[in-house]
Automatic annotation (TrEMBL), chain A:
The keyword Cell membrane applies. Residues 62-270 form the ABC transmembrane type-1 domain. Its main location: membrane. This is Phosphate transport system permease protein PstA. It is found in: Cell membrane. Belongs to the binding-protein-dependent transport system permease family. CysTW subfamily. Keywords: Cell membrane, Membrane, Transmembrane, Transmembrane helix, Transport. One of its GO terms (cellular component) is plasma membrane.
TrEMBL record, chain B:
Part of the binding-protein-dependent transport system for phosphate; probably responsible for the translocation of the substrate across the membrane. The lineage of its organism: Bacteria, Pseudomonadati, Bacteroidota, Sphingobacteriia, Sphingobacteriales. SUPFAM superfamilies: MetI-like. This is Phosphate transport system permease protein. Residues 72-283 form the ABC transmembrane type-1 domain. One of its GO terms (molecular function) is phosphate transmembrane transporter activity.
UniProtKB/TrEMBL annotation, chains D, E:
NCBIfam families: 3a0107s01c2. This is Phosphate ABC transporter, ATPase subunit. The keyword NAD does not apply. One of its GO terms (biological process) is phosphate ion transmembrane transport. Keywords: ATP-binding, Nucleotide-binding, Phosphate transport, Transport. InterPro entries: AAA+_ATPase, ABC_transporter-like_ATP-bd, ABC_transporter-like_CS, P-loop_NTPase, PstB-like. It comes from Mucilaginibacter paludis DSM 18603. The keyword Disulfide bond does not apply. GO terms for molecular function: ATP binding; ATP hydrolysis activity; phosphate transmembrane transporter activity. GO terms for cellular component: membrane. The lineage of its organism: Bacteria, Pseudomonadati, Bacteroidota, Sphingobacteriia, Sphingobacteriales. Residues 6-248 form the ABC transporter domain.
Length: 281, 296, 262, 253, 253
């Protein structure tokens, strides 16, 4: 009797744990989609909030998040790629590079709220940018940096050494071999890492809390030196700070759904790049 | 001389790349010194001992109290709860993925876990408010479900993907020889998993747990939204708590710069920083140890 | 170019709803101005003022002595505008047995002297206080008005809305919010607003009683301030003018706040 | 092949890894209380065949097996025997000694525990297995020592003890001495010869001398097929097949 | 060694990877317009030596090089020559063909572009290089085809064309045929023989027949030292050194 039961218990346990994990994902998606999709409409994503943010759309928040993510990419991508190039192409195994690598891993583990503080101290106060799109974008850029370095280095590492040697052997300088041969081969991998990192950055809230995000703004488009609305913060605000929380639930659900669609879309495009690339190999 | 220019460019590029490498150190050092500087400024006004052992956090009370113990305990409580949920689930799922699931199932489950990892923390916090909180409230008969338990469940969901991925790597890294030895004395898959594979992968699993803990300690938005944020000394899972991260998030916007309260928040951040640093270093130690062991 | 027409408004959660409505309508007449609004509490607004991160600091309380000193020290001259009047309402669950409460009892409830409702309603159930976080203007207003320290067990909610939400479901809860949060697009929230008895023997007055408010009879009524750094005055004057215009005044009253005729 | 009682056998066995056929119609029989050596060049399928007998392939996803494998008259795959029972009755010793990263004691105890041997009997069985495997004298003073600290030869004897402790009917050995020095090898050969009294033994080896020293019967495999099987002496002295001859003379492999 | 004009040479060259000395006092000379074969057992340092001549070790961190390497009379390391210039003048073909993942045209064009060859001359040079490398007929119809789609032998010839296009003075080849089938190998050998009119060629090979077929001079290395160098015929027929003899007769390596 016991003998027959045990395998069921064993499988049951593992299936249960795995099932629960899947259930979490499905529950999240189901709840957001079932309750959010009714709020979703063209008007919702193409108009500004109205009536004290109890009606209307989320256009300024969408624009804010897009601009913010763009700034993040513009800051973190070149910087991160250069650093990854240094580590993978130039650095020797010295104490200095070991410190750099350790720093990167530790930066990746620093809580995002601490990046927020750093952004506040450095950009908002130190560099006198005030609470602004630029300050928040720079902060998110710093946060994304370690991930971009790690993924880019991984992509560079996969370029075979024979490619570098081929370039050098026809008289290219090391920089030329990196620029003309190594980087082009590494692009798909780098792009995957970049997009995944940006999808993470797009969903971050803590680092922008005190560096520039605003509750409400009466104009959709933003400027670098001005405050902005952002999807994740808008969701936070609608669900905790708004004067009519119950009444704006549908808006909150709609915002959450849009946010998650943006993030998943970025993720899917990363999977797609990865898949396309693996097919070619 | 074109060649000379090309070689100059090469040198300049090398210098630039190297600079960016150094900048990374500068950033970490910058964060560290920013925290240190402000923490020192804080300790000039409040005794470190009072800060660490004080049981009251009321910066705008009269007199102001800067005791971070309740925050520390809250963070620990929520993290502990999260790990109690996430560790068994994570190890179970990772075991299923590495030893039980077929290739097809795996190719569905892996992206699903990556998807779960990418759900933004506000979205999770939001569901904590609208779904889990009311759920907990109605089950336990409380007025609202914004408490430590809610936060713990949500943090568990957030740290699960990390724990699953790293644990799975560890389990799959266990040499086949161990498993075969176990099977050859008549053990079945389950016995092998529990008694041989998991113990052999222990360092890797520990690393996974550490990374999960790091994630949970540092998470802000979810706990800010879901735990009710009462700064009183936490009494249990069914009470509202206020973690270190939530405290910073709530109060940083509303303090005048360069005041004691402002410095106090940096001091909390410094403690948070050290905690995550420690957890990451421990995690990394085990990851490395496990790598060595894998190579052997 | 347009940076000159960019206004940051931060502060009082009590006023944020009003400020958003004002900004929204202001945009209809001044499309060239962009107004960014954040709530968070009066303390946040005043802190932002001190930090140079806002053009208008909304506050539901006056500046305290320390803040005045700090403003002086930092060399930030300001102008103060009182643009509306608020009545702080005490709210309870809609099935709560009492309709009114006197100030003395209220103080004992809020400072934790009464742990249960027994002295007031006869029911031995624990009192749950839904308060605001410490930087809230309302929080400090109630504290100074009642001359108490709040009970340690008071929940510190981040906004008025959260208090309303909490009270809706909590039969033994009591909380305080700005009058603007009672009315919601004309529909009344499913909660009960307690009438306040200022002195033993005097009549109970509701914070929704416009006439009583106009006569300064409600115990917890207060002006709503806007502090503006002098350097921003030119930039924001158009917005202030709009608040004072007929359209602005109408928005204020329809939002549930009061205008005190000078 | 001789007329002995056949303990273990395979009939028309075929095995594919994905699309690659590795065993092609293998029919082979192992007589009771005899040592059979399985020889053949690298990659010919010796290990693959051996692993069929204790169902080690069950765990790999894309393996397909056809044919019949019998222990006495019970079908190892198609009958009522479960995989764990098959593995208990048919023990295995691997090329690389693979003790668990636990104590010497626990290494043997594990199998006993798994197979529900009562606690009070275990110590005796462990001691006995260690003695049978000629390692008792070297380890008796510290059974709690981690098995990984033993020398390669000791580890391999421990693995044999682990197999022996369960009193299997057959012991399969996949190049058990290939990683060992001559002295350890000699000890293990001595042990194998002693074990044959109680067990049926199949041993894969690359060492022709070893096969001749210990095996009663030798089976020569080539490219997934059994080319020739018979008395060891006959296989080495008068191989019938040209391939066998070339192989045992050391011309390839 | 013969009296020819010496194009490339190393004197008292030593090389360490970290603490491990891989080249021990190597002195060797390669005469102009001759093919020199470099032979020796695996791991003796042939590739390492070859790579010294076009400064491929520059990129590795813990490599230390001593001694003098001369192209004509210019020192490759210590003089005014930059690494880039050295590599342009001393071309290299690797064991595994390593075309860029670009079109056939771009593979050759890249080196020309980098080295500032005017655009209008490039097409001619490319065609010429492809013809010189006996691959023109096979690719002339589609120069835009990705080089990775060529066969292994074609790729290797493309790599030779890529080196040749820059008109280097020396071409170093590290086992250029080891990954190729006999037909491709024959084509490349034919090509090498033809190239020697214009270039000085050093080729590492494991194939004794190949060395005898194409090399004018042969150098035998063993454990990081040059054991013997001389006319190919002499090295293979009457080696002076016992080690050389054993090696060329196929007794080890
Ligand atoms: N898991 C596997 N998947 C695919 N092919 C495999 C797998 N295991 C073994 N093979 C292939 O099956 C063939 C037989 O392998 P096997 O290990 O049985 O050879 P062997 O005779 O034991 O060789 P050796 O003497 O080297 O141990 C080999 O060609 C091998 O590459
Ligand atoms: N990057 C390196 N770091 C450390 N040791 C190295 C490195 N590259 C080569 N070696 C060692 O240097 C020695 C010579 O290597 P090299 O590649 O020159 O040999 P080879 O003669 O070309 O051998 P083969 O014929 O196998 O190509 C070898 O022992 C090798 O292990
Ligand atoms: Mg084998
Ligand atoms: Mg070589
Ligand atoms: O949000 P407050 O108005 O209470 O400061």
């Amino acid at each position: 009797m016991m003998k027959k039961l045990t395998p069921i218990i064993e499988w049951g346990t593992l299936l249960l744990t795995t099932g629960l994990v899947c259930f979490f994902l499905l529950a999240i998606l189901w709840d957001l989609i079932s309750k959010g999709s009714s709020s979703l409409s063209w008007a919702f994503i193409s108009t500004s909030p109205t009536d004290g943010m109890t009606k209307g759309g989320i256009l300024p928040a969408i624009i804010g998040t897009v601009l913010l993510t763009l700034i993040t990419a513009l800051i973190a991508a070149p910087f991160g790629i250069c650093c990854a190039i240094y580590l993978n192409e130039y650095a020797t195994d010295s104490w200095l590079t070991r410190i750099i690598r350790a720093s990167i891993r530790n930066l990746a583990g620093v809580p995002s709220i601490i990046y927020g503080l750093f952004g506040l101290a450095l950009f908002v106060q130190g560099l006198q940018m005030g609470t602004s799109l630029l300050a928040a974008g720079l902060t998110l850029g710093l946060l994304s940096l370690p991930y971009i370095i790690i993924t880019t280095e991984e992509a560079l590492r996969r370029v075979p050494n024979s490619m570098r040697e081929a370039a050098l052997a026809v008289g290219a300088t090391q920089f030329e071999s990196i620029r003309d041969v190594v980087l082009p081969s590494a692009v798909p991998g780098m792009l995957t890492g970049l997009v995944l990192t940006l999808s993470r950055a797009a969903g971050e809230t803590a680092p922008i809390l005190f560096t520039g995000v605003a509750f409400y703004i009466n104009k959709p488009a933003g400027y670098l030196n001005q405050e902005f609305m952002a999807l994740p913060y808008h969701l936070y605000m609608l669900s905790t700070q708004h004067q009519a929380i119950e009444q704006v639930r549908p808006l909150a659900y709609g915002t959450a759904l849009v946010l998650i669609i943006v993030v998943f879309f970025l993720n899917l495009s990363a999977f797609y790049i990865r898949y396309q690339h693996s097919k070619h190999e | 001389m074109k060649l000379a220019i090309r070689e100059k460019t090469d040198q300049a590029a090398k210098l630039l790349f190297r600079m960016t490498g150094l900048m990374v150190i500068a950033i970490l050092a910058g964060i560290f010194f920013m925290l240190l500087w402000n923490t020192i400024a804080f300790f000039l006004k409040v005794k470190p001992w009072d800060f660490i052992t004080g049981t009251q956090w009321s910066p705008s009370g009269t007199p102001a109290n800067y005791g971070m113990l309740p925050l520390l305990v809250s963070t620990s409580l929520v993290t502990l709860g999260a790990m109690c949920i996430a560790i068994p689930l994570g190890i179970g799922t990772a075991s299923f993925l590495s030893d039980y699931a077929g290739r097809k199932l795996k190719s569905v489950l892996k992206p699903a876990i990556e998807m779960l990892a990418s759900v933004p923390s506000v979205a999770i916090g939001f569901l904590g408010i609208v779904v889990l909180g009311p759920g907990i409230a109605s089950i336990t008969g409380q007025s609202n479900g914004l408490n430590a338990l809610n936060g713990a469940v949500l943090l568990a969901i957030m740290s699960l993907p990390t724990i699953i991925t790293v644990t799975q790597d560890a389990l799959e890294g266990v040499p086949n020889a161990y498993k075969e030895a176990s099977y050859s004395v008549g053990a079945n898959r389950w016995q092998t998993l529990i008694q041989v594979t998991i113990p052999a992968a222990a360092p890797g699993i520990l690393a996974a747990v550490m990374l999960g803990v790091g994630r949970a300690i540092g998470e802000t938005m979810t706990v800010l939204m879901a735990t009710g944020n009462a700064s009183a000394f936490p009494k249990g899972f069914f009470h509202s708590v206020r973690t270190m991260t939530a405290t910073i998030a709530i109060e940083m916007g509303e303090v005048p710069y360069q005041t004691t309260h402002y410095y106090a928040l940096f001091a909390i951040a410094a403690v948070l920083f050290l905690m995550t640093l420690l957890v990451n270093i421990v995690g990394e130690y085990f990851v490395n140890k496990y790598r060595k062991y894998q190579a052997a | 170019s347009d940076a000159g027409k960019f206004i940051k408004v931060k502060g009082s959660d009590t006023e944020v709803k009003l400020a958003v409505s004002l900004a929204e309508n202001f945009y209809k007449v001044h499309a060239d101005f962009s107004v960014a609004i954040s709530g968070g509490g009066s303390g946040l607004g005043i802190a932002s003022l001190l930090n140079g991160q806002t053009d208008i600091a909304n506050s539901s309380r006056p500046l305290n002595a320390e803040e005045i000193v700090l403003l002086k020290a930092k060399g930030i001259p300001i102008r103060t505008v009182i643009f509306a009047e608020d009545a702080t309402a005490f709210i309870v669950h809609k099935d709560f047995p009492l309709d009114s409460i006197d100030v003395m009892s209220l103080a004992k409830v809020l400072n934790g002297q009464y742990k249960t409702w027994k002295p007031l309603t006869g029911k031995d159930i624990q009192i749950n206080i839904y308060g605001r976080q410490s930087n809230s203007g309302t929080h400090s207003f109630i504290r100074s008005k009642l001359k108490i320290e709040f009970s340690r067990d008071a929940k510190e909610m981040n906004g008025n809305a959260q208090i309303v939400e909490g009270i809706k479901h909590d039969r033994s809860g009591i909380g305080y919010v700005g009058a603007g949060y009672i009315l919601n697009n004309g529909t009344e929230q499913p909660i009960k607003v307690l009438k306040i008895i200022a002195k033993p023997g005097s009549i109970a007055i509701s914070p929704l009683d416009i006439k009583a408010i106009a006569a300064h009879q409600y115990y917890f009524q207060r002006p709503l301030y806007q502090f503006i750094p002098l350097t921003s005055w030119n930039k924001v004057s158009a917005f202030i003018d709009f608040e004072k215009s007929a359209a602005g005044q109408k928005i204020i009253t329809t939002s549930g706040y009061y205008i005190i005729p000078k | 092949m001789s007329k002995e009682h056949i303990k273990l056998s395979a009939t028309a066995a075929k095995l594919w890894f994905g699309n690659k056929q590795v065993l092609k119609n293998v029919t082979v029989a192992f007589p009771q209380n005899k040592i059979t050596a399985l020889i053949g060049p690298s990659g010919c399928g010796k290990s693959t065949l051996l692993r069929c007998f204790n169902r080690m392939h069950d765990l790999s996803a894309d393996v397909r097996i056809e044919g019949d494998f019998l222990l006495e008259d019970q079908n190892l795959y198609k009958g009522k025997l479960s995989a764990t029972e098959v593995r208990r009755r048919i023990g295995m010793v691997f090329q690389q000694a693979n003790p668990f990263p636990k104590s010497i004691y626990e290494n043997i105890n594990y199998g006993l525990k798994i197979n529900n041997i009562p606690k009070d009997q275990r110590l005796g069985i462990i001691e006995n297995a260690l003695k049978e495997s000629y390692i008792w004298d070297e380890v008796k003073d510290d059974l709690q020592k981690p098995a990984t600290r033993l020398s390669g030869g000791q580890q391999q004897r421990l693995c044999i003890a682990r197999a022996v402790a369960l009193r299997p009917e057959v012991i399969l050995m996949d190049e058990p001495c290939s990683a060992l020095d001559p002295i350890s090898t000699a000890k293990i050969e001595e042990l194998i010869l002693k074990l044959k009294k109680d067990y049926t033994i199949v041993i894969v080896t690359h060492n022709m001398q070893q096969a001749q020293r210990i095996a009663d019967q030798t089976v020569f495999m080539y490219l997934g097929e059994i080319i020739e099987a018979g008395d060891t002496k006959q296989i080495f002295d008068k191989p019938a097949n040209e391939l066998t001859k070339n192989y045992v003379k050391g011309h390839f492999g």
